[in-house]
Amino acid sequence: MNFPYINQIIVHSCYTSKGLNIPKKPLEKFKHIILTGKNGSGKTTILNRIAHVLKYLQDGKTKEQAIRTLESIINANEKHHDRNLWEQSKSELKDIDLYFLNNNLGSFSETSCIISFFKAHRRIELEDVKTVSKEDVFLINLKKQDNADDLTKLFKQYLVNKKIYEAFDFMNNKNSNINQSKVFFDKLKEILRNILEDKKLELIFVQESFEFNIILSDKREITFNNLPEGFSAFLSVVMDLLIKADLIRKEKNDFEYQPSGIVLIDEPETHLHLSMQYNMLPLVSSLFPGIQFIVATHSPAVISSLENAIVYDLTSKTEVADWILGSSFSELMVSHFGLENEYSPVADKILEEVNIAAKNKDITALRTVLVKYEAFLTPALKLDIECLLIKIKNSNND
After folding, report:
1. Which of 78, 83, 268, 374 has its CA 20 to 30 A from that of 316?
2. What is the 3-state secondary structure (H, E, C) of 134-182?
3. What's the pLDDT score for residue 74?
4. Comparing C-alpha atoms, which of 256, 259, 246, 323 is closest to residue 292?
5. Average pLDDT over residues 114-128
6. What confidence score (pLDDT) does residue 398 get?
7. 23: preceding bond cis by omega (within 30 degrees)
8. Is 238 helix (H, G, I), strand (E, B) or coil?
9. pLDDT at position 323, please?
10. Closest Cα partner for 304 from 289, 284, 325?
11. Which class for 36: exposed (0-12), middle (13-18), buried (19 or more C-beta within 10 A)?
């Protein structure tokens, strides 16, 4: 494996996290890395620092070269108004060290590499498309976008350009280009079907308005701009990676090529329903198998969703064992997220009253629980209390 995937993160000082090796021993093969822990444990700060180091690697500099460059800038501009920003940038570079599966760091500055950082609370805000842009000008503008949100805004323009140039290719009998465009849009439609859980979904281009309508199986029509927040947050990740992967494949003239890279995602569960939280990382990792995902999360669904991953808890400063993948969410809430038990506060109160009544063999108290908490009793808990009533009755009759 030629690409330098991260095999260990050494945290010197990131907010409250200090002196950590993540994982304790360097990875010997490609794996995703999932960071978890309580609020304030440093998850987001660590992702920010990793992104900071990777940016300099993309610019063709090692971390040490970047620090020396910043020191030279600071010394040469002693009274410059940006001095504090440069000092902060230098300090942040020193906060962590990244180690890689091989030393081919030059790969980071190649165009065939994908590096992205998705911050928490993201959503799609696509710019309206008024016309087709020149392909070469648009591609230059696209490659200048460092921020994932800025790149995603251009997604609709990117799709419109592909559709219009597909029509030109049809007129000019460029069948290979038409096939490549068809593969792209078929893949996009399949992704939308998976995310929106609608196997009959269709994606229609409306050429009069330069708009794309998503037609659901129940005949409802929506656009990318009015997707619910959860789907929007999910798609913001997919859109960025789709554009970058497509550009790389186009440059290589190989539309089967799987690009390598490192993608950071802070709180991938943002706005997502539980089932979508569980499916997000498996879906994007299957779409982009050459990408290593470094993720910070609070979600038991996320931390148990990927087999080829290590999970590190910043609160306990330990790597979580592989059994986490075979755990129920309720078990994870107790064993990993620090709750006293798997029940809600209301369920705790009900169980406490049931236990006291059972200990005293108090049939009246148990009946009171059934009436008092009727609206909150699950069928299983209600049946357990009724069985307990019968058991106490029978024992009292004996």
Report:
1. 268
2. CHHHHHHHHHCCCCHHHHHHCHHHHHHHHHHHHHHHHHCCCHHHHHHHH
3. 85
4. 259
5. 80
6. 58
7. yes
8. helix
9. 47
10. 325
11. buried
Nearest to 27 by CA among 238, 311, 219: 311
How do beta strands 260-266 and 221-223 pair? unpaired
- Considering Cα of 356, then 357, then 360, then 361, what sign does the dihedral take? negative
Q: Helix or strand or coil: residue 240?
A: helix
Residue 90: Cβ-neighbour burial (10 angstroms; 0-12, 13-18, 19+): middle
135 contacts 251 by C-beta, under 8 angstroms: no
Higher pLDDT, 120 or 11: 11
**What is the signed CA dihedral for 130, 133, 137, 138, rounded to 10 degrees?**
70
Strand order of the β-sheet with 17-22 is: 17-22, 6-14, 96-100
Q: What pLDDT does residue 124 have? A: 67
296, containing H or E segment = strand 291-296
What are 331-378's pLDDT values in tens digits? 555 455 554 545 556 666 787 888 888 888 888 888 888 888 887 777
Phi, psi of 23 (to 5 degrees): -75, 180
Tokens of 222: 């929506």
- By the 8 A CB rule, do 102 and 1 touch? yes
Q: Give the integer Cα–Cα distance in Å for 308 and 295.
A: 13
CA distance 95 to 379: 52
CA angle 71, 77, 83 (to 5 degrees): 70
Could you tell me which residue, 227 or 46, shows the higher pLDDT?
46
- What token pair was written down for 279? 């499916």
- pLDDT above 90 for 6: yes
